[in-house]
Amino acid sequence: MKAAIFKGPGMVEIGERPDPVIQEPTDAVVRVVLGCVCGSDLWYYRGESAHAVGSIGHEFIGVVEQAGAEVQGVREGDLVVAPFIYSDMSCPHCLNGSTISCPAGGNFGNGTIDGGQGEAVRVPLAGSTLVPVPGSEHPDAVLRSLLALSDVMSTGHHAAVSAGVKKGDTVTVVGDGAVGLCAVLASRRLGAERIIALSRHADRQKAAREFGATDIIEARGEEAVQAVLDLTGGIGADAALECVGTAQSIATAFAVARPGSTVGIVGVPHGQLSFAETFFRNTGWRGGPAPARIYIPELLGDVLDGVIDPGRVFDYETDLDHIADAYRAMDERRAIKSLVRVGAL
Amino acid sequence: MKAAIFKGPGMVEIGERPDPVIQEPTDAVVRVVLGCVCGSDLWYYRGESAHAVGSIGHEFIGVVEQAGAEVQGVREGDLVVAPFIYSDMSCPHCLNGSTISCPAGGNFGNGTIDGGQGEAVRVPLAGSTLVPVPGSEHPDAVLRSLLALSDVMSTGHHAAVSAGVKKGDTVTVVGDGAVGLCAVLASRRLGAERIIALSRHADRQKAAREFGATDIIEARGEEAVQAVLDLTGGIGADAALECVGTAQSIATAFAVARPGSTVGIVGVPHGQLSFAETFFRNTGWRGGPAPARIYIPELLGDVLDGVIDPGRVFDYETDLDHIADAYRAMDERRAIKSLVRVGAL
B278 contacts in A (CB within 8 Å)? Predict the structure, then answer.
């Protein structure tokens, strides 16, 4: 089959990988319909994080082509959303909501396991991993939003959940990438009354406003912190969502978080923060890789009901043959997030 | 009046300070009945944190001797518990539960403001700060427990609340000082089923067991982490409470916290922690100085009802004339926490 191959920094090319087959009775083979490029793929592409040579891509929706004998919960022909990791949903960590720590789980597109940027994927632990989508016909906009649940929207939601966003809150979202935009949408969905988005790009500001941002701050660093304080009567935000992961963005998120609040962190964090800076203000943090499998069912309902449309973060699209363009568009900041059309529904 | 005077590291002596008088209509003058020495006082005593020359001590109970014209909520003759900071309880931070960040608030015993280690205290914002104790006669054990609410028990409770301790949880408490012991008691009070205390001193192990610890681990560092994992089937604790503040104790707390949990941090933290160490396990942190004023009313009810007896952390006592002994006993680890008898009820 055709699949994107990570060959090293700057080199993601279309290539061939073996057609996936059922290896374990708990496997399913899923024919990919839509895939996309994650902000974390870009870290690999830029050589800022290591990635094995081979399969890549961990976000996809597709159709179950074959299901192993022990697979329960999904059947051949089902349209399914894949969370970005597979998990057994029966271990103590999964049962506690931490699918990312499932000892039996693992990552799609890690060089060895099939990736979402390919024609098909062998999905381990398919019954507990894949979430079937009710109904048989869905407009393209809905399919795009379902794809977003695979990672980016679940991650934005995780930022909001980790920070404890609740009805009536004032939220500040640091980061206007696809995750930051989804964090805005997730905050609106959870009832935030005021959503302050830090963004300096006109197209992303527009997207943020469409997702529910009520205020946009173009400044960064100290100036951005002061702007948030000015907007909140000197109090700070009830919840700050950190969706970047740089030392500066982390410091900004903590500085705009009001005393006693929790910063939701979903950008893979770089650098360190002195505890003492946050201790005396009682600002904490929660977050990490999102337990997408836990969130997808509830978000999926809202996508099908037209309540949320996270698929709007895809502002560039191509096909598998042009996978290199999908990366380049994001690397050159021409795209917020690249969608890859792989197969028919 | 007589009062302890901080003169520099290693030098806390009995001395004279002006008799406190009402300066603002919101002030009260409280005659101190019991005071004590805090673990943070010891940081000053040891020269590890800076402290101004002058008044010291921020934990006390006493009797209102005089109340300013605008003081509501407490009256002359009332037995009161003072939280370790004063606050207005009407600003956005106080109303949000963050009394420590009250702009009108401040610390007792900071060199200038009267301290709890003295015969009397001018209490600013007395009506919103002091918590009156119902009833007129209380056994000495109850008075000691009321004193503990001023800081140490409220702080242990804050660790448990920050970590989200709930009914049925397995909790690990790092630190067997007075705060750690109170964190054990607070965890039991909140319904924790299993409480693992890290302690290597026989007297503190005994106190921990009396407060509700079900398991004691004497090891430290990696060995302690492994012991907690062994006790929890490799999962880790539902909640880890960090009650020390050293780099090692913080690392231990994060390592024993199960994925997805929150470490409650109340030991003033020293050093840094790499975010990346905790991010991929989704372990967060919350904590800081306790909003004692928020907690005292609910804890006070349990003290009067005999449900909790945090006053047992006081295992050394003396009077104001021997304040230097109170510090020495703790500095030399002969005492968990020193009580100072100041005046009659």
Answer: 288
